[in-house]
Amino acid sequence: MSSPEKKWKTVESGPHSYEEALHPVVRKNYGKWKYHEIPKPGVLKHVAESGDTIYTVRAGTPRQDTVDMLRRLCDVADKFSDGYLRFTVRNNVEFLTPNEANVEPMIKELEEMGFPVGGTGMCVSSVSHTQGWLHCDIPATDASGVVKSMMDTVYNEFKGMQMPNKVRLSTSCCAINCGGQADIAVVVKHTRPPRINHDHLATICELPKAVARCPVAAIRPTVINGKRSLMVDEAKCICCGACFGACPAMEINHPEHSKFAIWVGGKNSNARSKPSTMSIVAHNLPNNPPRWPEVTEVIGKILTAYKEGGRPWERVGEWINRIGWKRFFEETGLTFDDDMIDSYRHARTTFNQSAHVRF
Amino acid sequence: MEGAQKAASGEVMQGKNGGSDGNGKFLNPTPMLDELEKGPWPSFISGFKELAERTEKPMLRGVMDQLEYSYNTKMGYWKGGLVTVDGYGAGVITRYSMIKDKFPEATEFHTMRIQPAPGLHYNTAMLRELCDIWEKYGSGVITLHGQTGDIMLQGIEQDKVQECFDELNQAGWDLGGAGAGMRTAVSCIGQGRCENACYDNLKAHLKLLKHFVGPLHRPEWNYKIKLKFSGCPNDCTNAIMRSDMAVIGTWKDAIQIEKEEVKAWVADRGMDVLVNQVINLCPTRAISLKDGEMVIDSRDCVRCMHCLNVMPKALSPGKERGISLLMGGKNTLKVGVNMGSLIVPFMKMDTDEDIEEFIELVEGIIDWWDDNGLDHERIGETIERVGLKQFLEGVGLEVNINMVTRPRDNPYFKAKY
Fold first, then answer.
1. Which of B13, B41, B49, B274 to mutate to test the interface with A (most CBs of A within 10 A)?
2. Is the CB of residue A90 less than 8 Å from the CB of residue B187?
3. What is the pTM of this model?
4. CA–CA separation, B355 vs B358, rounded Å?
5. CATH number at residue A333
6. Domain count of chain B?
7. For position A7, what pLDDT does the model report?
């Protein structure tokens, strides 16, 4: 790819420098902030030891953005926040201004442009998610479409602060779960072993790599029509799809058999309870583009029950720890079944090794 | 750039609920995708359409057609490859269409991962410049940000990658990580705005990633290493689960209490709220009332952040600040999800020397893993396989009771005596 007329010598600079990207008030008070308040949903007020104040206006974005959209956000920043903006890890955009008078006009303009102002405090925050059909090489669905469909249904919860605590959502297009652990997560669940494309396999796969990738040793070398190939012990296979990443001929994705599962109770923060991983509470939901109504319906049930029953500061997992899984399933109307009993590594740590029973 | 000015002037701006009826002159019909223009949340499809109709880039039309096809067949159609820039072995995520005969305009749709500034801070000059360069060479589609922490410039053809990179690089941008090497890092806003940030995570992030820029661009380890930098145990970057090395700010001494602010808080909200939402929710019962005043026993405090979150004006982290290092976080692939485990309970991170010392530690740990890990094994998996004790011996770290929730519950080990 080198062009003969190339003149520029690459500078391996790593991350972009940040100092010029910080608002002057941020730079002046760097490391010397005293406290913050949330005057209203979507707005933060931070006060420094010097007495300086900076207001933040936060708004949701589609994450899959375009240069046109980003230029419009730059216009907002130039007009109201002295030309500075930043993004959160949950794809929200933030504008920081020391000028309180800019807050309301900025909110008005963002809302008129279609960017919902919110995402602060006890809200349903935006979704951490992955690429899906738009760009990924192993997706069973399109995360961006699922996210858009979900956020349409929790639009008011994003803009308000009426939940017991913040709710973090994630979406993933395969079982690797790039979207991450979340209070509520929507993750693809394959339900059939991979179909092996033997013609394809011999030419594109390093066989030992695919064999080694299987966590339950279900993949073995074999010979098909005189060519080296692989076979799957279907009784052993746990339908994880790990082999597909190593070898595209192990076709795990299927339009009907790649389903959705819903998981709850993930938490990365250390506040109160230790960080926790998620538990499965619904599965076998269809992959139903373009709006995935079955998925958003389950999310709605969980959010409604949590909003109703959660105490202040309880995250979804903490709420369930208090009321117990039995009541969780009763109050959400979801059904516990035998596939939800863990059968993988450390499964016994999820068994109830006590006589504590809820009736 | 005329197109940019047109976009900036708002001529093509889509209002709220801005679904379009079908497509404009340039795009083919996409009835499935059109459904995603309905509803109040901003629509990525409306954004793509606006961009495609304005720029008339064939790649965008092809990708929209292929995406529409995916929505109908419920299958994905991208395959990988090996596009990169001179001297680098990673940073461009290669995508070729598997069905280019059907959608020739979507033949190539490569992504350039670009490392943003730590904390995801921008000024409009640098963001506009990035947009202009990207529109010149690529599709104009950008993800802010990928789960890796990168700016994802999505959609460029192989023969434009080098030129695009050269121009981006001149503007101060560099490619992000991919494959079995150091990866792009993520930081929370840190001391830029947050009163709880216990160290300068933006600076630590920048220095660490500059130090490891070689293995980031030329991956040659067993597998990836991800670093994330959170200013406090609220862990807004989700470092504990999303990174092999989670650098989380903390403090050693007592939580600072502003007594007058506690009184004002209680006067405003009532004693019930103090008891129910602060004292009762302390995970180690470190808070009690003494003669009506809130008292925290620091020996019992585990620095979880809860009381500080509820009473930000009255409480703040102690003065002796630094970081905890947790290692081994990863998601589900193969062995299942793994939370990071505490490896270094406390380290100062105040001076450049502190950061240098931390870099040396990280380097030593990665060297050990490079020698002892297996192919496609994350460092947390290696530690679990060989044993935490063996890992500590290998990298020369001292054992600390904070590394475990309790001593072992079985007698099966070989003692040194």
1. B41
2. no
3. 0.95
4. 5
5. 3.30.413.10
6. 4
7. 81
Q: Is B243 within a domain?
A: yes
Residues of B in contact with A128 (CB under 8 A): 147, 238
Query: Which pLDDT score is estimated for B19?
Result: 46
List CB contacts of A236: < 8 A, sequence separation 6 or more: A216, A217, A218
**Choosing among B2, B6, B14, B36, which should be mutated to test the A contact, i.e. which has the most A CBs within 10 A?**
B36
Read off the pLDDT of residues A340-359 as tens digits, 9 standing for 90 and up: 999 998 899 999 999 999 99
Domain-embedded: residue A246: yes
Coil, helix or strand at residue A134: helix
Across the interface, of B8, B84, B122, the residue whose CB is closest to A71 is: B8
- The whole domain housing A185 covers 124-191+255-342
Whole domain around residue B392: which residue ranges? 186-251+321-403
The answer on A86 and A41 residing in a single domain is yes
Q: Domain end: B111, B145, B170, which one? A: B170
Q: Is residue B181 part of a domain?
A: no
| A255: nearest CB among B15, B74, B142 | B74
For the record, the structure tokens of B221 come out as 């380890």
Write out pLDDT tens, residues B160-178.
999 999 999 999 999 999 9
Could you tell me if A91 and A237 lie in one domain?
no
CB spacing of A15 vs B118 below 8 angstroms: yes
Provide the domain count of chain A: 3
**Does the pLDDT at position A5 exceed 80?**
no
Contact A67 B304 (CB under 8 A): no
Tell me, yes or no, whether B138 and B82 share the same domain: yes
Q: What is the least distance, in Å, from the CA of A358 to any CA of chain B? A: 23
Where are the alpha helices (H) located in B58-123, listed in sequence order?
58-73
What digits encode the pLDDT tens for the residues A7-49? 899 999 999 999 999 999 999 999 999 999 999 999 999 999 9
Question: Residue B234 and residue A88: Cβ atoms within 8 Å?
Answer: no
Contact A106, A80 (CB under 8 A): yes
Distance CA B52, CA B67 (A): 14
- Location of structure tokens 């406090």: B232
Q: Which residues of B279-289 are buried (b: 16+ CB within 10 A; e: fewer)?
A: bebbeeebbee
Does B364 fall in a domain? yes
Integer Cα distance of B355 and B352 in angstroms: 5
Any domain includes A2? no
Residue A118 placed within a domain: no
